[in-house]
Fold Phosphoesterase.
Amino acid sequence: MIIVMSDSHGESKIVQEIKARYQNTASAIIHCGDSELDATDAIWDGITVVKGNCDFDDGFPETTVLQADHERIFVTHGHLFGVNFGLSRLTTAARENNCEMALFGHLHTPIATIEAGVLCLNPGSVSQPRGGYNIKMYAKIEPTRKCYRISYLDIDHQPIPNLQFELPRSSK
């Protein structure tokens, strides 16, 4: 199980709550940027985090690649890959890094789609939601051989109706 959050914009309490809830059960906990916290903050122990356009601490990487649940995962905030205008640059970067997943923030809205064989997922925002779902949220990904089980949860850790689904993938 992979936990993905983004765009907390200074609200460290929810980041800490999500970390505490999953730190002993998730293979990875990922923050896709715009935390507005220091890169040296102890909250990041056990969390993979990248730099967003509102993060001014140069201690955060712009992108990172990690391995979790037998998947290679490309993580970025998204602004450097033009996610406002489509996912092709993000997908290309993920494929260049031999990644099956590309996780990103920046848009503050839930997105989960397979593009060129890559799962592209935005977990929404845990503090400032935008778009069709005005719900503070994060995502849980459970990869299987045949699909990605994706569940978006609100900050009370309850599943969000209509945001629970499986996306098929090509066989490994």
